[in-house]
Amino acid sequence: MALFGFGKKKEEKKEQSCCCGGICTPEKMAEAEQEKAAGGIKVLGGGCAKCHELEANTKTALAELGIEEPVELITDFAVIATYGVMSTPALVVDNKVVSYGKVLKPAEVAELVKKVRA
Predict the structure, then answer these.
(1) pLDDT in tens, 30-72
(2) Which of 42, 46, 78, 98 has the fewest CB atoms within 10 Å, i.e. is most exposed?
(3) Enclosing H/E stretch for 99
(4) What angle do CA 80, 26, 81 make, to 5 degrees?
């Protein structure tokens, strides 16, 4: 009889590579870093309404600035993690995180794009 757990064999714990439960494999992280290396304008988020609103506002701001460039919506959390973003939606201009955690208005997006690309 094992009183208070004494005398019982300890169960071996499975080691996980990280806190995500194995989603962030080395291959997946390498792929995410490669995707991050591509410049441009990106919106990072889980695909919620706020993320889509920031994407639309970014497209509006680019049209007002006369910039014909695609806006990429990234919903892959492995890629988002490579940017170090903990709060979405986030806006990335030329691999630089310029905003996170809020939905920017088109005028605010335009100002940030001008600032980064000046």
Answers:
(1) 776 776 667 789 999 998 999 999 999 999 999 999 999 999 9
(2) 46
(3) strand 96-100
(4) 15
